[in-house]
Design a protein that fits this description.
Elements lengths: L2 E5 L10 E9 L2 E4 L4 H6 L4 H7 L9 E5 L8 E9 L9 H14 L5 E5 L5 H14 L14 E2 L4 E2 L12 E5 L6 H25 L7 H14 L3 E5 L1 H7 L2 H7 L7 E7 L7 E12 L19 H16 L4 E11 L11 E3 L5 E3 L7 H13 L5 E6 L3 H7 L4 E5 L2 H14 L3 E3 L17 E2 L7 H10 L7 E6 L5 E2 L10 E2 L4 H13 L4
Parallel strand pairs: 1-9, 2-5, 2-6, 6-9, 12-13, 12-16, 15-19, 16-20, 17-18
Antiparallel strand pairs: 2-3, 4-5, 7-8, 10-11, 11-13, 14-15, 17-20, 21-22
Length: about 525
């Protein structure tokens, strides 16, 4: 884990392997950002000129390393681009600082300590920089090399392997923050808790499916829950059969690894609201009998990203001691073809009592979520939010970096969209057109698990809506695009699992605790 400290030392005097400063894109070349005054002085006021000579422009995410002059204790200065210079009387927004810090931290893999002298005007700026740096420093190397102890199977945390892979940046020293200030200390503590749990979620998403399956995921949840005072209940196959969870059982029955439904309960003695979070946890999705073609199944270990996000959000809420009850439901199964697998044309009786005709076994996420949604509804929470890598249709609609939001309450959908934008997660509100419901009519069962091909992401949302208890506010986040990043890293986003939606869920819990959502 990368450590975080708030330092009162000056940029020129702090001993570190590197000193990170911000540079913006000005009309006539790079402009040194606030926080780097002492560094600029060490360059005789010519830091911007030196960067310009080296070809730096200040573009967002651009990284330029240069040797430090004699007036600095650190041997290297790393200038990271912040993009356009803010308008007069405006500051750099949080996401700009978050991404810049992440890019710098990634570029400093292998270093023991780096001092970040980026613009800090308030505690919120310090928190954004800390988040970006701690998320950007993430790397998953547990399976690289011959070190059998590289992977900590108890908590899912990765460590550097034994093949010479660079260790993540060891320590982030944040300059410009105020370690004795209550708001700054709270910001740092929140950043540490949040990023550690996002990185744990990333570890789970990146873990190969031969090691992460429903039972092992449930074991991680149980161990971490115990550590943080969260009540954990695990329903195994026998309990699922006894309870009539036909959706989860139907998806998992083709695998040698049986399904699980995990309940995580965080409660606060003074809480006035309860928030239920439901996560799709398909630890590997082959498509089942409706087998995915080659080229579409290699990354399907990530199909449990929704459950990882819910797990991380509940643990973060507990670590922050939020004044709200948060219940997480992890619907865990492995979708495999075999002689015992559910077939297209089979009818499943769900936990709610409804019957579902399975027309496509690769539309399995909605089946496990349906059981978990109905189970969550029985406890009458104030709101339910489900999170899932549910449909390729949502990726076609919104791309790889934006998740879709659907809801049975327009105001709630708007609130979640605003929260996501505030914390730096790209999202977009999507409709639930009533006319698409008819496409799921079945001559055999109450409903089919497939409908019209066009608008497939919306059809899936309409299916889930059928399994939400009457009168309960509900939202569905389809994170199929941003959950797993296959391209080159950018900002604080790594290649592989991203931890998408965790920040949105945690902020939603904080808003609910504060009574800001009604």
């Amino acid at each position: 884990m990368t450590a975080l400290t708030l330092s009162t030392a000056g940029a020129a005097t702090l001993r570190a392997d590197a000193l990170v400063v911000g540079v913006a894109k000005g009309a006539k070349g790079p402009v040194v950002a606030p926080g780097a005054e002492a560094v600029d002085k060490a360059f005789d006021g010519k830091l911007a000129s030196v960067l310009d000579t080296l070809g730096a422009t200040g573009a967002e995410g651009e990284v330029t390393k240069l040797p430090a002059p004699s007036g600095l204790k650190a041997p290297v200065v790393l200038a990271v681009g912040l993009g356009a210079v803010p308008e007069k009387d405006e500051a750099y927004d949080a996401e700009t600082l978050r991404r810049a810090a992440g890019a710098a931290a990634r570029a400093l893999n292998g270093s023991k300590k780096a001092a970040f002298a980026l613009p800090v005007e308030a505690a919120e700026d310090a928190e954004a920089i800390a988040e970006g740096a701690l998320l950007g420093a993430y790397s998953f190397t547990a399976y690289q090399g011959n070190d059998k102890d590289a992977k900590d199977s108890k908590n899912g945390a990765s460590q550097a392997g034994g093949n010479g892979a660079k260790q993540p940046l060891g320590e982030v020293a944040l300059l410009g923050a105020k370690p004795r200030d209550k708001a700054h200390k709270a910001a740092a503590e929140r950043a540490i808790a949040l990023t550690e749990e996002i990185n744990r979620a990333r570890d789970l998403i990146n873990t190969p499916p031969n090691d992460l399956f429903p039972e092992s995921f449930a074991a991680v949840a149980t161990a971490v829950g115990k550590e943080h005072g969260i009540k954990v209940q695990v329903l195994d196959e026998k309990a699922l059969v006894k309870g009539g969870f036909g959706g989860i059982l139907g998806v998992g029955q083709g695998s040698a690894h049986g399904p699980r439904l995990v309940k995580l309960g965080y409660t606060h003695p003074k809480a006035e609201k309860t928030l239920a979070l439901v996560g799709k946890g398909i630890t590997y999705d082959s498509g089942g009998i409706s087998l995915k073609p080659a080229g579409h199944n290699e990354t399907m270990k990530c199909d449990m990203s929704g459950a990882a996000a819910v797990f991380a959000a509940v643990v973060t809420a507990a670590r922050l001691g939020l004044r709200v009850n948060v219940t997480g439901w992890l619907a865990l199964a492995e979708n495999m073809p075999s002689g015992t697998a559910t077939r297209p044309g089979d009818v499943l009786r769900m936990y709610s009592g409804k019957t579902v005709e399975v027309l496509n076994t690769d539309a399995e996420g909605r089946l496990v979520l349906a059981d978990a949604l109905w189970k969550a509804s029985e406890e009458k929470p104030d709101a339910i939010v489900d999170v899932a890598t549910l449909t390729g249709a949502m990726v076609l609609a919104l791309g790889n970096r934006t998740f879709g939001i659907m809801s049975n309450d327009d105001a709630f959908r708007t609130s979640i969209h605003e929260i996501a934008e505030e914390v730096g997660e790209q999202s977009w509100p999507m409709p639930l057109p009533a006319e698409l419901r008819k496409g799921m009519d079945s001559p055999t069962a109450d409903i089919a698990n497939m409908g019209e091909r066009m608008g497939g992401g919306l059809v899936a949302g309409l299916f889930l809506k059928e399994f939400v208890g009457e009168g309960i506010t509900w939202a569905h986040l389809d994170i199929a695009g941003p959950a797993f990043h296959e391209g080159a890293p950018f900002g604080y986003t790594p290649k592989g699992g991203t931890g998408s939606a965790v920040r949105t869920l945690v902020k939603l819990a904080e808003r609910t605790a504060a009574g800001d959502l009604g």
